[in-house]
Specification:
- Two copies of one chain form a homodimer.
- Chain A is α+β, with helices and mostly antiparallel strands.
- Chain A has one domain (3-236): Aminohydrolase, N-terminal nucleophile (Ntn) domain (Glutamine Phosphoribosylpyrophosphate, subunit 1, domain 1), CATH 3.60.20.
- Helices cover 36% and strands 28% of the residues of chain A.
- The first copy, chain A, is built from five helices and twelve strands.
- The first copy, chain A, has helices spanning 53-68, 83-107, 157-163, 170-187, 218-238; strands at residues 3-9, 12-17, 20-22, 28-30, 34-39, 43-51, 114-122, 128-132, 138-140, 147-151, 195-201, 209-213.
- In chain A, strands 10-1-2-11-12 form a five-stranded antiparallel beta sheet, with helices on one face. In chain A, strands 5-6-7-8-9 form a five-stranded antiparallel beta sheet, with helices on one face. In chain A, strands 3-4 form a two-stranded antiparallel ribbon.
- Chain A is globular, with a radius of gyration of 19 Å.
- At the A-B interface, helix 3, helix 4 and helix 5 of A face helix 3, helix 4 and helix 5 of B.
């Protein structure tokens, strides 16, 4: 399984992904699910993937192949004039890959379902956040729904619903993303450390943070423990109320 | 959808269920999913159902039919000597109903998946808590896993995992069940009020509580609000930690 969350705030976009994949309970491996592209001052793009690993890897590879063979004149992540076009290019790559492998997977009774979160900013444009589906179609995050989750989304959703608004400060949004991941890590064994974090600040065409949080990270463990304690405290208050 | 939770503590068993069912997003109705049987001082039984409504209604009806036609000599919920036999009787009824309708549902591409939580106590026996599956097989709650959830279980699981142990006092367990339901109500529109509550205290062969919490219940709303406030407070503490 997978858990990836992307939050679009007025101040910037936060992306957080785990690295565990499994093909059955006895085939668990570690794969990076976050991919980034940047050209300082021109564009910064982060993608996160969930679903069929072969499908999403093929999509990412195809996008990178096209960048390397720019002489073919195909529009790429680095030549697209807007983030909207970037989302379309990702959707087109998804359609090509699904066309190649989807029918075979369906025939074998395997799921080909995949999704890709696409976030970023082009110089002169707004920050934008999209979620691309298996069919290559996509939706964009709005003021009403400023975040996307892909993969195992349920455990980590309540904290986002309670805390996230477009005006939420970036550091508060990062905490919410971390606690959303913490709840998911605790409840679903097929979501696992290490984690990849990307933070893109509004108007700054580059990464404010781009780092990995390793298994056993002390600050992460401290936060996780403190959150457990705070929740137990909050719960204790509740036992005083008679329903 | 449905959310039902049953918690087995040293002090007793708590059952809590919602009442919303849906066949598609535009066919939502209200159905009680909690069923009780009691003979004061002899036995007390609570069941909660999830899954295909026609299947679970047929199982409950069959169990009640057999009680009414006791002259047929069939062992019933009221004549079974132990709670284990009660679980077997429910499993047998499930197998009969699934045998009748399962193949037709499968042929129509509909899900026949259903589950029934069975909780109770027989005079002279221990309190026991079982979960019966579609095939009529069942598992029992243990010290390691003292609760069962059926239906939309993910949103309400983290609070149970953090709080529930066999030694948890009954009133604390009730609060945990209520907050587990509150999280689910907030996150899934197909789970809805009113709620049915049954509390059976260890050694008392009857109901300590058997009541309905209606939509708009003031004490419930107060608890829900207080929990939101407490969570926001707990979250605010977290934003002070730097990961």
């Amino acid at each position: 399984m997978t858990y990836c969350v992307a939050i679009k705030l007025d101040d910037g976009i936060i992306c957080l992904s785990d690295t565990r994949t499994n093909a059955g309970i006895d085939t668990i491996s570690k794969y990076k699910k976050m991919f980034t592209w940047q050209r300082e001052g021109d564009r910064v793009i982060t993608m996160m993937t969930a679903g069929n690993l072969a499908i999403t890897q093929a999509v990412i590879s195809l996008l990178n192949e096209n960048i390397e063979h720019v002489e073919d004149g195909i529009e790429t992540l680095y030549t697209a004039p807007t983030m909207f076009r970037v989302a379309e290019i990702v959707g087109d790559a998804m359609r090509i890959v699904m066309g190649r492998y989807g029918p075979g997977l369906t025939a074998a009774g395997e799921s080909s379902a995949s999704s890709i979160v696409v976030a970023g900013q082009r110089a002169g444009g707004d920050m934008r956040l999209f979620q691309v589906y298996s069919a290559g179609n996509f939706i964009e995050a709005t003021e009403d729904t400023p975040y996307f989750q892909i993969g195992e989304h349920k455990y980590g959703k309540p904290i986002l619903d309670r805390v996230i608004e477009p005006s939420t400060p970036l550091n508060v949004g990062i905490t919410a993303a971390f606690l959303s991941m913490d709840s998911t890590l605790r409840s679903n064994l097929s979501v696992g450390m290490p984690l990849d974090v990307a933070v893109m600040r509004q108007g700054q065409i580059g990464f404010d943070q781009l780092r990995r949080i390793e298994e056993g990270d002390e600050a992460w463990a401290e936060m996780s423990e403190a959150w457990s304690g705070a929740l137990r405290g909050a719960f204790h208050e509740m036992t005083q109320i008679d329903v």
